[in-house]
Design a protein that fits this description.
The structure is a homodimer. Chain A is mainly alpha-helical and about 200 residues long. In chain A, helix 3 packs parallel to helix 6 and helix 4 packs antiparallel against helix 6. The first copy, chain A, is built from eight helices and no strands. Chains A and B meet through helix 7 and helix 8 of A and helix 7 and helix 8 of B. The first copy, chain A, binds a DNA duplex (30 and 30 nucleotides) through helix 1.
DNA sequence: ATTGTTACCTAACATTCGTTTGGTGTAGAC
DNA sequence: GTCTACACCAAACGAATGTTAGGTAACAAT
């Protein structure tokens, strides 16, 4: 009846729901989509498998919500960092986006890394809807590269579309490694930025 | 009794076995490890599921053989191309290796693409043994980059280990795309080579 | 004190999975 | 013509899967 009543009533439900999402995201990263069973998820949460259906319609919608949120996490993280560096030049903004993308994947969001690792193995309908969600985040990079191009910072003959694909490959593939713990993500970003934009070859080779 | 007798006796067995491997590789690329069932494989071959056990101990060893052969395909393809260009400079040899790696993944071997797409989702023991198989192919690239470094063709401050990881990310991640059919793999290789080695930024940005 | 809702559990459902067992037709060897 | 090894099939196994139905403690509202 009070204003705090409705939130309090809804709290346990929301907490449990969030716990399920968190634990499932972790399992999806570790074992992939098909190998993560509802009973495994339930055990990680401290429930029984059937109880998951109180919070989600089925396994697919649970996973879809996680993978969708994964894109949102990366997009918000990169977006916030770019907003904070609104005055930086286009190349510096690209470097910031690279570091932020890497940091979200490796240190901040199991949702994001679950998205990368499971996308290809998820049912086609989900994958189709996830493509739509990706497009908005893709747009951020399209704009970043367009800004760099307009500023005359990109070399001639470089196709921005391929460059974007190359960047995604570089950044997302790092999930396949065990990151060397002696090197920071800042180092990694610096190396990748140098390779992709300044080139790994000595000038004139 | 004749010399052709033993081969003829063994032929049907070998043909069937190879058919199983081929069809399974294709299914692994399309649906991933856990979602590819033995009954699906058997149907694609024209057998019943139980009959697969005449040729393989179990699902895991069937898959392991495919993923292992995938590495062999790439390694032999790249190795042959490099042997044919023994006199080329280290940077040209790197370009050749890139194109050959891409071509094997996209046009020549389902075994190779199955390896890339399924490696992370395969049982840990198999993954552990596959790492050993990868190491030899990794050595090819370690040598390529060492040759480039020794020739003074690499920029200072570039860590060859990170550069190799970057290259693998770039090349292998292309399997996540639908390759634009209007662009050849030669174009793609050229773009990637320019980005990674000459840099996507205009000099002095 | 009673009622109703919330957030689960128990127990089962039908299916599918990898796998095994016991056969069976066919082809060549003798 | 008989025999034998080969390459497979038929049918089932137990276990695991996603999912559903019915029940039940705990708590809040009345």
């Amino acid at each position: 009846m009070s204003q705090t009543d409705a939130p309090r009533k809804a709290r346990l439900r929301d907490v449990s729901r969030r716990t399920i999402l968190d634990r499932t995201a972790r399992l999806l990263v570790e074992r992939g989509y098909s190998s993560t069973s509802l009973r495994e998820i339930a055990k990680a949460v401290g429930m029984k498998a059937g109880s998951l259906y109180y919070h989600f319609d089925n396994k697919e919608s649970l996973v879809e919500e996680i993978l969708t949120e994964g894109v949102v996490h990366v997009q918000e993280s990169v977006g916030a960092a770019l907003d904070a560096a609104r005055d930086a030049g286009p190349m510096e903004r690209l470097r910031i986006a690279m570091e932020c993308h890497l940091r979200t994947l490796h240190e901040q969001s199991d949702y994001a890394s679950a998205h990368i690792r499971c996308f290809a193995h998820v049912p086609p309908e989900i994958r189709h809807r996830l493509r739509k969600v990706r497009e908005e985040y893709d747009g951020v990079w399209v704009q970043l590269l367009k800004d760099a191009e307009d500023a005359g910072s990109l070399a001639e003959g470089i196709d921005p579309h391929f460059l974007r694909m190359a960047l995604f490959g570089l950044l997302n593939w790092t999930l396949e490694w065990r990151l060397p713990p002696d090197r920071s993500l800042e180092d990694l970003t610096y190396q990748f930025y140098r390779i992709v934009f300044e080139g790994a070859a000595r000038d004139g080779s």
